[in-house]
Amino acid sequence: MIMYMLYSFMIINLSIKYKLNSYKDLISLVSSGFLSKIIDILTSFFMISGAAIILAGSGALLHQYFGISKWIGIVLMAAISLIILFRNTKGLIEINSFIVPSLLIVIITIFILYIFFSGHAINISHIKSIPYNKNYWLLSSLVYASFNILSFSGVLVPFSHEIKRKKYLIIGTAIGALGLTVLSFMLNFMLLMNMPYIFNYDIPLLYIVSRFGKVIQILLLGIIWLEMFSTEVSDIYSVSKTLEQSFSISYNRAVMYILALAIPISQIGFKKLINFLYPAFGIISFIFLIQCIIFYKKNY
Asked: Is pTM beyond 0.85 here?
């Protein structure tokens, strides 16, 4: 949460001061020379791959729980993404204005139900006795936060350019960081309380809510899909804004190019893509954030 807040404020301040338009501008400003080009290329690659991962995940999710063809899930996600992305920044704001409150309501409801029905099973001594296999929690936290920060910079930089009120941007990112932290606590608490059974499921939260009936399960499935959709449009939006600026092609055409590229990449498979790309991008992002701090201290 602290990293999200601090880096969001830094990115907003740098974007406004130097009139940045895309994550490419931010990378070029903060990093220099050959390393800047490498980070820029890899960030674009990871965002396009991220869009492919979400398409694959949409196909896998609908296939696993409804038995329909993976292609239906992929085409559905791509088609709706195209409609929203053609509305540019306005479309991104509109969809997240619906998805974020929905996510909060559903996860908080599930957490309250879990606490209510678990009763005496929840206590400090039980939580302390849960085995763990993660010794480098601080490093994992830094890499995970870095991954997300460089990812959302692709949206935050253009927003800082288009939304002129700095105060609203600061308040929005602070509330977002706090909300994400609270949700993460709720989700991780429920996962910890269901160790080691959760390791038998691709989406362990669905196993946890199965005791609350089909309606809650379907609501959760819907929220998972919507969150995937939010990431999909954010990734494509970020790269499209960069392509628009770098190669002087229209934003809408850039959106279509990226989707056309992401669909065949999605055929590699959800698990294969995510297992390699996410940790690698996290490490690159962590290096970039160190550069970001050094640049900010010297120049702002």
From this structure: no
